[in-house]
Design goal:
heterodimer; A: 4-stranded mixed β-sheet; 4 strands; B: alpha+beta; Glutathione S-transferase Yfyf (Class Pi), Chain A, domain 2; 4-stranded mixed β-sheet
């Protein structure tokens, strides 16, 4: 599809087809206000300086468009690029870095070994760290205690990897920071609700500092979910889980 | 830059021949024509080198490149593609969108097949009928994806095997083995004809044929070592 030189047209005189083509070229993101996966994608787009149209989904009543664009999982986020959908946040993050390679900062490092390490820690966050944290938040009693211990064990591994660096990627944020980033506001919410501290200064000082660095970075602090609303939602989620197991 | 016979080879793979995740790494190395040494682990006993190289997960496969360890099969495959980028063919497609599509499906495959195969093998408890239905649905979706991505050519990657071919193809050995073990049909020519034809082509590919044995060998392995498998997989994805 040839890109039209839009400066030769006044928008009022654009034909319906031209308007549709212009519309198709815009990046769109289907999301939900509390989804950490959506925020990762939005921060990545902001790092690259990409303009996008955001469409808020009602996850209890998903739009036809969402179901058409992500028939396999029916989930957000879904990024639409030139009218074509991409789903799964990790996949979207790598896509953003590759499609806009020369815009803004690189999200993944250049060196193949460093890239492999970044991908490793992203998987670690998803497969190894998230499950016990979620379990800790949604259970009680012995089950919760066991999950807490497992979560701390994985966090200690992460602490070692971070090793006092400002971000996992070094001086600037990268893929791993974006991927683990939501923990920086979710864990404090979970701690407040459960009344238990997961990230203690004496045991996980680098991680505690990283959470601060992440939340205060220019990209992130300008775009965070509404915390009070999120806390209420998390509270309701915990209560629902505890109710179900009784 | 070649190593003398006294030095450790530049590229070593820690693995088990029957692991589809290890098979992925071997296919990628063979595809790129990279000389490598395979260190076969002993089933049920992890070597010191493995424990040292992958202390976080203690799982195979691990690629050691000049001694530096890389873990997780799909991460290793991408690493191989990026390091030996001047060796044809490219494993990941050039276009970022097509890459995203292949990565999406590779993730989907690893969400469905490893667990499903374990249940059908009998090493993990589960509802076999439900799993057969899930895997059949997955294969149906992959059949459609194949038609779109292959564009009339032989592989997901087009003229040659690529990332998604390797991601799915590495599971063909065990898929065919559990068909025999559980007495079920998964790669059904009536339901997924293109995938069945693709699977045969994949298994006969020069980079694949020596590292992806026949289903019978996997069945034998399952009989021999079934009791050695812990309830959680001993291999990484």
């Amino acid at each position: 599809m040839m890109k039209r030189n839009l400066t030769t047209h006044h928008s009022a005189t654009l034909s319906a087809m031209e308007r549709q083509e212009e519309d198709e070229d815009r990046v769109k993101l289907f999301g939900f206000w509390s989804s950490p996966y959506v925020y990762k994608v939005e921060w990545a787009l902001r790092i690259k300086g990409i303009q996008y149209d955001y469409i808020e989904e009602n996850l209890e009543n998903k739009s036809d468009q969402l179901l058409e664009y992500n028939p396999v999982h029916k989930k957000v986020p879904v990024l639409i690029y030139q009218g074509k959908p991409i789903a799964e946040s990790e996949v979207i993050l790598e896509f953003i870095d590759e499609a806009w390679k020369h815009h803004g900062d690189r999200i993944l490092p250049e060196d193949p070994y460093d890239r492999a390490m970044a991908r490793f820690w992203v998987r670690f966050g998803k497969d190894t760290l998230s499950p016990p944290i979620w379990k800790w938040f949604t259970t009680q009693g012995q089950e919760q205690e066991a999950a807490y211990a497992a979560a701390v064990e994985q966090l200690q591994i992460l602490e070692k990897e971070l090793d006092g660096k400002r971000f996992f990627a070094g001086e600037k944020m990268g893929l791993v920071d974006l991927s683990l980033g939501p923990f920086s506001y979710i864990i404090p919410i979970y701690e407040e609700i459960t009344g238990v501290k997961l990230i203690k200064e004496e045991k996980l000082p680098s991680l505690l500092a990283w959470m601060d660095n992440f939340l205060n970075s220019s990209i992130v602090r300008e775009h965070l979910p509404p915390m009070d609303k999120l806390k209420l939602r998390c509270q309701a989620i915990r209560e629902a889980f505890l109710k179900n197991t009784n | 830059m070649s190593s003398t016979k006294e030095e450790a080879p530049a590229v070593r793979v820690l693995g088990l021949w029957a692991s589809p995740f290890v098979i992925r790494v071997l296919i990628a190395l063979r595809l790129k024509g990279v000389e490598h040494e395979v260190l076969e682990e002993v089933v049920g006993k992890k070597s010191e080198l493995l424990l040292r190289s992958n202390p976080v997960h203690k799982k195979i496969p691990v690629l050691l490149h000049h001694g530096k360890p890389i873990s997780e099969s799909l991460i290793i495959v991408q690493y191989i593609d990026e390091v030996w980028s001047s060796n044809a063919p490219a494993v990941l497609p050039a276009d970022p969108y097509v890459r995203a599509v292949e990565r999406f499906w590779a993730q989907y495959i690893d969400d469905k097949f490893p667990r499903g195969i374990r249940i059908l093998k009998g090493t993990v408890d589960g509802n076999k009928d439900e799993i057969v239905e899930q895997l059949s649905t997955a294969l149906q979706l992959l059949e459609e994806a194949f038609l779109k991505l292959s564009n009339g050519k032989h592989y997901f990657g087009g003229d040659n095997i690529g990332y998604l071919d390797i991601a799915l193809g590495s599971h063909v050995g065990w898929v065919r083995a559990v068909e025999k073990i559980a007495g079920v049909q998964l790669l059904d020519a009536a339901k997924v004809p293109h995938l069945v034809a693709w699977a045969d082509r994949f298994c006969a590919h020069p980079a694949v044929m020596d590292v992806l044995p026949d289903a019978d060998r996997f069945v034998e392995y399952s009989v021999k070592y079934g009791s050695f498998f812990p309830t959680r997989s001993s291999t990484t994805k």
